[in-house]
Structures are given as C-alpha cells and as structure tokens.
Amino acid sequence: DRFWHPNRKVMDSMTLEHPKMYTWDAIKTTTIRQNRFRCDHGWDIDLDDGSSNYHIYNNLCLNNGIKLREGFERVVENNILVNNSLHPHVWFANSLDVFKHNIVAKAYQDVGLKGWGDDLDYNLFSNEESMMKSQIYSRDIHSTYGDPQFKDPSI
After folding, report:
1. Could you tell me the pTM of the whole model?
2. 3-state secondary structure 54-108
3. What distance in Å separates the CA atoms of residue 93 and residue 109, rounded to the nearest whole number?
4. CB of 119 within 8 A of CB of 96?
5. Helix, strand or coil, per DSSP, at residue 31
6. In this structure, are residues 85 and 105 in contact, taking their beta carbons and an 8 Å threshold?
7. Cα–chain-centroid distance for residue 98?
8. pLDDT in single tens digits along all 155 residues of the chain
9. 82 closest CA partner among 59, 105, 101, 99
10. 3-class state of residue 12 by DSSP
C-alpha cells in the first residue's frame, strides 16, 4: 500500500488525519474463505504491514491462528482456530477490525495495540481462563467458553 510508513508515530498521525486512506489502494474487499490452513513456522493466516479491507470467514486454522498487523477494516468471522487464537499486532486506534463468531483455543496474543478494533465479541473460547484474559480489555462481553462438540466425520 502506498500509504505505508515504517515509523509508527508517522503512521499514527497519518491514520488520524486520513482515516480512510487505506481505500486508496484496497478498493475492493479481498476475501479468504472456506480454506484449511496449517503453518508450522508462522501464522496460519498472516495479514502484515498495512493489509487492509479483508473479509476472512469459514476457515479452519489448524496450528498458529490468525495474525492481523497494522491494517484496517479486516472482518474475521466464523473461523475455527484449533490450537491457537487471534494475534492482534500493532493495531491503530481507528482500525475498524472485527473478530466475531469464531472458535478459538487460547486467549488473544496481542502486541503493541493502540486500540482494540471495532468489534471483538460472540466468540467461543476453549476454556474460562482464555475467555477471561480476553475480557479484561472490555471485549468479548457476550463471548462464552466450552466444548465446541466437534463430530468425528469417520463415525
């Protein structure tokens, strides 16, 4: 994206001055849907450095979860993250990111956030501790925890 700048302070000021500048390049929404991912040396889905305007849904992530770093308007919903969780890295205060209706195994693994996006809620965590760690940020208020009751297709 042409708006990208490696200096975080410069990016923060640019995003506040031009909150929709990511649409200069990411005009149409990029969709990632109905896939099975597994990465042993990174994230199963990795949107890095300015990746914006994505709709990620109905995916099965088998190992390292989903990372969203420094971008805008990423909607992540109805995914299953078997052995991991969401990795929100260095989000801007006005990122407009959404993470809802997902099944996650662990608490969010956040790094350097300026904000928690637009909506993180209605997710199913594998245990109470993971859910509670995510709720301390006043997110996932309607989320719950428990056994997702997956069925063995061979039976």
Report:
1. 0.92
2. EEEECCEECCCCEEEECCCCEEEECCEECCCCEEEECCCCCCCCEEECCEECCCC
3. 17
4. no
5. strand
6. yes
7. 7
8. 566 778 888 888 888 898 888 888 889 999 999 999 999 999 999 998 889 999 999 999 999 999 999 899 999 999 999 999 999 999 988 899 999 999 999 999 999 888 899 999 999 999 999 999 999 888 999 999 999 998 888 88
9. 105
10. helix
Please name which of 91, 125, 82 lies closest in space to residue 107, comparing C-alpha atoms. Answer: 125
Residue corresponding to tokens 């450095």: 49
Q: Report d(CA 88, CA 111) in Å as an integer.
A: 6
CA distance 79 to 6: 30
Instruction: Give me the residue spans of the domains in the chain.
Output: 8-145
Residue holding tokens 């300026």? 114
Instruction: Report residue 31 as tokens.
Output: 């969709």
